[in-house]
Amino acid sequence: MLTKRIIPCLDIKNGRTVKGINFVDLRDAGDPVELAEIYAKNGADELVFLDISATEERRKTLTDLVLHVSEKINIPFTVGGGISSVDDVDILLKCGADKVSINSSAIKNPDLINELSAKFGSQCIVVAIDAKQIDGQWKVHLVGGKVQTELNLFEWAKEVETRGAGEILFTSMDHDGTKNGFANKALAKLSTELNIPIIASGGAGNCKHFVDTFIAGKADAALAASIFHFKEVEINDLKLELKKHNIPVRL
Fold first, then answer.
1. What CATH code is carried by the domain that includes residue 98?
2. How confident is the model at residue 14 (pLDDT cuts 50, 70, 90)?
């Protein structure tokens, strides 16, 4: 059985790690290079680096920061934010990223998923999907959650898989930063209907929430930010708790 992955997320704005609630009210959470090094040493399975304002500000991801982070860690490293071309991905991989995450650019140009998968391999391409429930339907959002689309979460996820994505990073905007648990019903449906790994994001508040998303939500990996940044949960303690529930993890 494949081990479940614990993934700290570094949301970057103006070169600093930040964290908010429901995608707003951001507060400073520290230096991303220092945090990345700590997580790599403390048992994180992977790391995600999202330049959250790159798309909105119409600029590229901070490549210098990506390079500095990659020099300090020895675990897989996914980078997202402002990526819209083969050249963008090529530069980030040369700076030390192992995978890239695309979101708004994939919605605006779905063929980009096919292009990137063909060029770099599907294992390298993560499609991030930010969605919230509106009138009982999961609607996909873009530009850091600021713009609603008419895309349905599950239909878009299936298309993403068909086009060659290797993983989906699903963030429930309703759960983001609330620390009330992940969107496990939606996650379970995604995991059941798709054949690629699903990363759960949005809502982690304690160890039980991770247990629940791996069992009830059928997630392959779980991502969190503030509870790790502010040391509310230590990764090694979390993994020991998961082990007690017979959830396979790398210790």
1. 3.20.20.70
2. low
| Cβ–Cβ under 8 Å, residues 130 and 145 | yes
- The whole domain housing 10 covers 5-244
- 250 within a domain of the structure (yes/no): no
CA–CA dist 154, 149 (Å, integer): 13
Rounded to the nearest 5 degrees, what angle is found at the Cα of 185, between the Cα atoms of 181 and 190? 115
- Which positions are catalytic? 11, 130
- 247, with CB counted inside 10 A (0-12, 13-18, 19+), is middle
Tell me the angle at which helices 207-215 and 184-193 cross, rounded to the nearest 10 degrees.
30
Does any domain span residue 117? Answer: yes
Residue 92 resides in a domain? yes
**Pick from 191, 188, 176, 185: which is nearest to 144 by CA?**
176
Count structural domains, the chain: 1
Please provide the DSSP assignment of 200-251 as one string. Answer: EES---SHHHHHHHHHTS--SEEEESHHHHTTSS-HHHHHHHHHHTT-----
User: For 211-220, what is each residue's pLDDT tens digit?
Assistant: 999 999 999 9
**Within a domain: residue 114?**
yes
Q: pTM for the full model?
A: 0.91
Q: Which residues, 6 or more positions from 64, have their beta carbon under 8 angstroms from its beta carbon?
A: none
Q: What is the pLDDT of residues 62-92, one digit of tens each?
A: 788 889 889 999 999 999 988 999 999 999 9
